[in-house]
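Sequence in, structure out.
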Amino acid sequence: MKLKVIVHEAEEGGYWAQVPSIPGCATQGDTFEELLRNLYEAVEGCLAVDIEAIDFASKDRVLEIAV
């Protein structure tokens, strides 16, 4: 999966970024390298879903796919 990310230079120093395709997904870092590390963590957290909280019928299946 490829996502476009908008990286901004923060006025107080460092960087912050947002992922437009995932509403509310944003992060920051003091250095560009820290920002990149934080971006992976932020995207993973934004896409994580607790499937145990979802009701499934007996014929339903849970699949994990890579895109």
